[in-house]
Amino acid sequence: MPESKSKNNFLIPAIGTAVVVAGGVAAYMYFKGGPQGNVSDALNAAKIVPDEALMATYISTDPTAWAKLEQFGTPEAQKIVAKELENFNKSLSTDNSISYEKDIKPWVGGVMIAVLPPNAVKPAQSTPQASQQSNVLMVVGIKDKIQALNFATKLKGQKDLKIQETDYKGEKIIETSRKSSPTYTAILNNTYVVSATEKSAIENAIDTFKGQPSFANKEGASSLLTQGVNVENTVAQIYVPDYAAMVQQLVATNPQSAQLPAQTLSQLKQVKSMVAGIGIDNAGVRLKATAKLDPQLVKFQYQNTGSKVVSEFPSETMAIISGQGISSWWSTVVEQSKDVPELKQTLETARQQLKFVNIDLDKDVFSWMDREFGIAAIPSNQGVLAQIGFGGALVFQTGDRKTVEETLNKLDTIVKAQSLNITKRDIGGKEITEWEIPKQGALLAHGWLNQDTVFVAIGGPVAEMLVNRQGPSLDSSANFQAVTNTLQKPNGGYFYIDMDKTASLIERFATAQRQPISPEASAIMSSIRGLGMTATSPDKSTSQVEMLLALKPKSGS
To answer: 368: helix, coil or strand?
Structure first.
């Protein structure tokens, strides 16, 4: 597509541009998507990145790790991937003479993409496009010098490639352009290619190569680079040694953004550093991230949960968020609001508005949410849910049933005054209360699943599914287990999406809007089993997140 080709200027991390020229030999290459790889050389690559780098991503080029993707996908999805690879090869040269598999892949030994502090945009230059430009440096390893030389020789005859060389401290910087903004490149020690759209970035990399401080020995970065994250078949890792400083600098140099309030910056300083890894295993594509926190600033810590609340939902559930201790989270928000005037004002406004209907936000709403909770979307085509195709369910385990009942009674009284019918119904020996719209059915229902578990359901049919479940529970369903069983345990709860059920609703809405999903998008969605994510805090100074994009096993043609 012409538009996508015009944007091949360092879109991180999928797209990169590099030019290799050494002693009169020129090489030009594009990276679109993630190169294949091995992360063992990340530390060495970081020794060429200036220490001012805000973050770095290392994409390895070991084909054995990326080959794991071949075990997933439907025939339709495989055809899409093959087509994209063909289009990618066509974009490498004007005469289709360049192939990534034959000409580039054999010699590339890993790619590090570093984000440097953005060059300040002067007011006269300030445009949405200018403010979005990042100062990016790419470091590409050369694992096979002969193959790289052959590739450079092959590209030397490209007629539309303009090359200009300059010297900087004994190293050649090559300015290359091809009907677009120039790219600057240098080869260091015949081992690494450094490339950027800003000449100053190449000069800084050369300074670093010659002994100036590097990202590898920057405070906090060295441990991130050496320890990384434990995922199988790692294809990429991301390193952020100073999270607050990164956000602050990016915002400070963007004329389109307001300066961060002192209170917001204080919140950001809770996170000291972050490292993340992406790998491909037998279940799909997995991401793990670990953030180091300042224990003196952190006010809230995830509480591990047994996720027993998940068993209260039916296997038909298409999405759920579960966890524990909303009341603790609320107490933390209230405490922090004392130092954040905007947040404090928002909370006070909410309290005052609820007081008009005799509801105490702190006591009647949040105080009793002290145990596990689950918030889910459940498919249904009955009653008031017929048009949208799904309803919602909130399930809370509580140690204060008396307060819950008082709150629900208050809500029933308020709703009754709005001309809705309040009715009670027995389902499977359990009494539920419904808010009924005349001639349409129950809009909302609430009741108790057991002595300490209350539910609120959007749509009467959803309430019936919760109270009188006929089939297996969500936690025993094959899809939920496939998506979540390999996630870290214990944990603070789950975020889960069943892609088949979700995709059918997406296609339904798209068709209703007369904007049907493209065959390509539909094929990709049909290759995904689901998405699972969880988080935990082993201690007050560490927060961990794990996410799995669970893929379906490869099927035949």
So the answer is: coil
Give the C-alpha separation, 104 to 337, whole Å. 54
Model confidence pLDDT, tens digit, residues 78-127? 677 667 666 665 555 555 666 777 777 777 888 899 999 876 554 444 44
Three-class secondary structure assignment of 465-524:
HHHCCCCCEHHHCHHHHHHHCCCCCCECCEEEEEHHHHHHHHHHHHHHCCCCCCHHHHHH
The tokens for 90 are: 């066509």
Measured in degrees and rounded to the nearest 5, phi and psi for residue 433 equal -110, 130
Contact 280, 36 (CB under 8 A): no
Instruction: List, for residues 13-35, the tens digit of each pLDDT value.
Output: 222 223 333 322 222 232 223 23
| 256, 237, 145, 150: CA torsion to nearest 10 | -60
Q: What share of the chain is helix, strand, coil (3-state, %, to 5)?
A: 35, 30, 30
* Cα torsion 521, 526, 528, 533: sign: positive
DSSP state of 331: H
The answer to whether the beta carbons of residues 281 and 232 sit under 8 Å apart is yes
Region of residue 439 (phi > 0: left; psi between -120 and 50: alpha; otherwise: beta): left
Handedness of CA 262, 266, 272, 275 (dihedral sign): negative
Distance CA 53, CA 204 (A): 11
